[in-house]
Amino acid sequence: MIFLQLFWTFLIIGLFSFGGGYAMLSLIQSKVVTEYAWITAEQFTDIVAISQATPGPVGINTATYIGYTVTHNLGYSEAVCVLGSALTSLAVVLPSFIIVLSICWLYQKVKKSGLFTSLMKNIRPIVIGMIAAAAGVLITRENFFHWSSWILMAVAFVCCKYLKVHPIWVILASGIIGLIIY
After folding, report:
1. How far apart are CA 136 and CA 25, in angstroms?
2. What is the pTM of this model?
3. Complete DSSP assignment for 104-136
4. pLDDT on residue 153
């Protein structure tokens, strides 16, 4: 019965969580700590900390660890606990997987449509504006407190836009330079 409850709970969390893994943490906590009392608040805090420290999306990692912890707390064997973690992981990603798969199928059907092509051409400037707005929000006195921050930003832009340096290398180099400067 616990496996069905875990699967259903994390399926609902995956379906109604928008904004990424951190956005789903409050919903996960309200379900597994408050509503069902499967784990304690302290266990949840520890699970989130471990989820942040391990590679991968924090929401999926949290679901994985909770599936394991809940079944472990109920006295199941290691193999069954692994099954619990796999089940919660599958349940939390399943809605997104189905939605993306459906969008891909739909895209294949409409990608040559004139209406769709026109819609995409009109959306591009909006997306660029939204990215620019996000950049504007991040350009604050706290983030750009020194003239070297502006130079670092400009060099990173030139490297990515004109020199075609891979963004990962730009991020790593910027981190090292920032560590040296600051």
Report:
1. 27
2. 0.67
3. HHHHHHHTT-HHHHHHHHHHHHHHHHHHHHHHH
4. 87
